[in-house]
Amino acid sequence: MAKQLGRRPDHGAEDPLHPLRHSAAHVMAGAVMDLFPGTKLGIGPAVKDGFYYDLALPRALAPDDLPRIEERMREVVKANVPFERKQMSRDEGIRFFTEHGQDFKVDLIRSFDRAEGAEDDSVGIYQHGSFVDLCKGPHVQRTGDITAFKLMSIAGAYWRGDETKPQLTRIYGTVWSSQKDLDAYLEKLKEIERRDHRALGRDLELFRIDDELGSGLVLWLPNLSVVREELETWWRRVHHERGYTLVYTPHIAHEKTYQRSGHLEKYGENMYGPLALDEGTQNFWIKPMNCPGHIKVFQSKVRSYRELPLRIGELGTVYRYERGGTLHGMQRVRGFTQDDSHIFCTWQQAQEEIGKVFDLAMEFMRLFGYSDPVIYLSTRPERRLGTDEMWDRAENALREALGVREVPYRIDEGGGVFYAPKIDVKVMDAIGREWQGPTIQIDLNLPERFDVTFVNDRGERERAVMVHRVLFGSLERSVAGLIEHYAGNFPLWLAWEQVAIVPVREDGMEYARRVAAELRAPGIRVHLDEPPLADMRERIREAQHRRAGYILVVGAKEAEGETVSVRPRGAAKGQEERGVKLADFVTRVVRERDEQALPGDFKPGDEGPSVAASLE
Hints:
This protein is α+β, with helices and mostly antiparallel strands. The chain folds into three domains: 18-194, Threonyl-tRNA Synthetase, Chain A, domain 2; 207-243 and 288-486, BirA Bifunctional Protein, domain 2 (2-Layer Sandwich); 499-615, Anticodon-binding domain (Rossmann fold, 3-Layer(aba) Sandwich).
């Protein structure tokens, strides 16, 4: 059976650094109060990799205030005072924080639920030195236990996340158990910044979000459009091989469709519409999901059990309203293409189909070099359609499917979508960050609401089971992840520039054009510098900047021997090859492309002699 690992970590009690990080938040808040009298305290939790505290300050903070706060924190750490826990009744807590002008703490205490039957519940208080905070802990024993820390940034945050309430200043920090760990984390942040898909998107001319066109809407520029075309071609081939029927569905639908599906009831705040058509007599909505359209494809005729399982797939563009503050490059957008597929099958076929989808998801991750997938079983959310019996049956089906493959998984309680539970696959990228990967859902609600049936072997109508699944999910978000995963250095089969040809001199252009023609014949994407030619070193640097998979330097010597000098992407000086037969290089690069090799995985054979001298 699959091994269940428990709930998804919340960076709380399951995080061994939680007490350290929570304590650092208190020390930081105390330091701010020392430096800025009159500061009011919001909340200060430990979070992934660090902590923050929300504060109402007498003046706006600037980044150059952070070193001052850090210095005051170091004084408190050096004093090595204890963290002391106390209890107060609710009323005492309200009086205490009222007297100290801490309105947000009073608001928090008043919001706490009383235990059933209790007349006067108590609240937890922690104190170090003169700083007192409402808190349930835990903390380290003394401030001296907090050594390796750094304040990172300043942001704004509404009290309780409500934009109608006061805006506070949020100070983020990080703290680790040793200076070595802190240094490693800061170095990782530099690498994350270097790989940021927004910066690489500008630098490599991959995508643009135009202010006039609208926020959250992505323009795929020519370079990244090549990547998308290759991904979609691979996706279609894989699905044809596995018996999927690919379809196209409209971008808008009548509101009765989304009333029936439950989208307007449970998801309406994330939808665009209504669009009043036919002189205002008909309301249409822009589709947020492809599911209803695929149901209508299934219902285009009466289906027999002999047609099942029927696997329907689509690269369908959908639109969802995301709040402006949540938009982030290609990762969080308002219009995106989802590789939706829906499998209509019998209950008896569902287990096998879920297993096949899971296997395809694992193949997907291997292809792109993602490692150490983490599997979550996401269960019923509070806001949902259907009966508990339906949800029990669907959740158990996913558990059984994971059990058959003996897959370790964690429970994400309440993490399912409003119509179905799901298997969530999280993938780890090249620098150890978690990304959303494939998802698989088993849905009994929409087949019920749309009366999705087939004729069984007894000639009777029987309710179909509907399996939802995506591999990429959002192509925009998935490709943003790949940009950062590869740091812009895509595998050769995806690279927008697979080979750059750099002639040594202008008299080598005739042979350079022949080399380009030989490579283009089998479909290799080639960039050839035409006259007037710049300095050769400059042209090599430009090709490297464009992320060319290979740079070929050709001159009179290469023309005479029908060879090329080869510099693979990322090769250091002395790792180039010279005297490589043109025909052999064409065979090599076509094979690397067709094998869809990962960067660094392709082994062309023994390297030829160094061409370093010829490139100087």
